[in-house]
Backbone:
């Protein structure tokens, strides 16, 4: 069946390929050490199939969401490849690496409150995927207390995002109920 939106398909393929290349040598920190790219792919999948999100800009930003934070990619590079809008969404969901991790965690909560609608969707999907990974493949050296604290912090972030996508919020609440 020919797509009615070939440019959307092209964009998503470009974003997938770009992210796969940038994350090519990375693994997730869970005990399964899955290829890193599984994570952004999962986000896009959750947005489409569980959140009903059909906006390709949001989906592309989800595929690219960790490239600034976890690879050598620059904002300028994202702007050049994918345009201002997608680059700015990725920037919105990127932690400032120079800050102490406690400050970064706090900042995520305050920044979530003022995030753009597309960044809010990416954040929601990210938190759903991260908690699911924390259950299916927890980082080996993390104590139960640390995992609990991670769940609680994720919920604090998501509480700032409520009213964005009821279906995703419900998915989040569902996974949160499996808090260790
Ligand atoms: Zn992520």
Residues:
């Amino acid at each position: 069946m020919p797509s009615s939106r070939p440019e959307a398909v092209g964009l998503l393929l470009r974003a997938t390929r770009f992210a796969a290349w940038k994350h090519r040598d990375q693994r997730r920190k869970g005990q399964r050490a899955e290829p890193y790219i599984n994570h952004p792919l999962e986000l896009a999948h959750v947005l489409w199939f569980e959140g009903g999100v059909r906006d390709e800009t949001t989906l592309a930003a989800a595929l690219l969401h960790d490239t600034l934070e976890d690879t050598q990619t620059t904002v300028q590079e994202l702007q050049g490849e994918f345009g201002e809008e997608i680059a700015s969404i990725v920037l919105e969901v990127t932690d400032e690496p120079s800050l102490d991790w406690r400050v970064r965690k706090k900042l995520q909560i305050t920044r979530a409150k003022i995030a753009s609608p597309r960044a809010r969707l990416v954040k929601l999907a990210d938190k759903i995927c991260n908690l699911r990974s924390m259950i299916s493949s927890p980082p080996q050296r993390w104590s139960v207390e640390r995992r609990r604290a991670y769940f609680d912090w994720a919920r604090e972030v998501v509480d700032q995002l409520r009213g964005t996508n009821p279906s995703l919020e419900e998915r989040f609440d569902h996974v949160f109920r499996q808090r260790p």
User: Anything to note?
Assistant: The CA atoms of residues 1 and 176 lie 39 Å apart.
